[in-house]
Each structure stands twice: as structure tokens, then as C-alpha cells.
Amino acid sequence: MGGISIWQLLIVALIVVLLFGTKKLRSLGGDLGGAVKGFKSAMNPEDEEKKSLEDKDSTAQTSQQATEQKSESKDKEQA
Model's pTM, two decimal places? Predict the structure, then answer.
């Protein structure tokens, strides 16, 4: 009594799909998801800074390993 039943929710959902179409609702859901993701990242800037620093460190390590491998291959070619 006074509450919304599952049948009423299904009827409202059907009307919304008929009015807006699935394509429009899908894009609306994607936009909403992007907004929530942006809000979460804005609320935790420390986590994002840590991730970016870790990414830079790993990139530096891989580039250093690549230069070491190149120098080793040059040494082998000279021998």
C-alpha cells in the first residue's frame, strides 16, 4: 500500500524505452558512467598521483632495460 510494485516499475521502464529508444538510453548511461568515474577520480587525487608516479617509474625502468639490452647486443656484435 503506497509503495511501487515491480509491475508498475516495469510499465514505467517500458514507456521510457518507447519514448527515448535504446540508443539514446545507452548513450545516456555511458555519459552517466563517465561522470561518476570522473567524480571518483576527482575525489581521490592522491591515488591518481601515485598511479602516475608508478607508471613513470615503470616506464623509466623498461627504457633503461632496453638500452642495456642494446648495449649488450652491440658488445656481442663487436666480439
Answer: 0.41
The single residue listed with the C-alpha cell 521510457 is 16
Query: What is the widest separation between alpha-carbon atoms in the chain?
Result: 89
Q: Which DSSP symbol is given to 4?
A: P
Q: Which residues of 40-75 are buried (b: 16+ CB within 10 A; e: fewer)?
A: eeeeeeeeeeeeeeeeeeeeeeeeeeeeeeeeeeee
Rounded Cα distance between 70 and 72, Å, is 5
DSSP state of 3: S
How far does CA 31 lie from the centroid of its chain? 13
On whether the CB atoms of residues 25 and 17 are closer than 8 A, the answer is: yes
Rounded CA-CA distance 32/37 in Å is: 9
Q: Could you report the per-residue pLDDT of 8-54, keeping only the tens digit for each?
A: 999 999 999 999 898 898 898 999 999 999 998 888 877 656 666 66
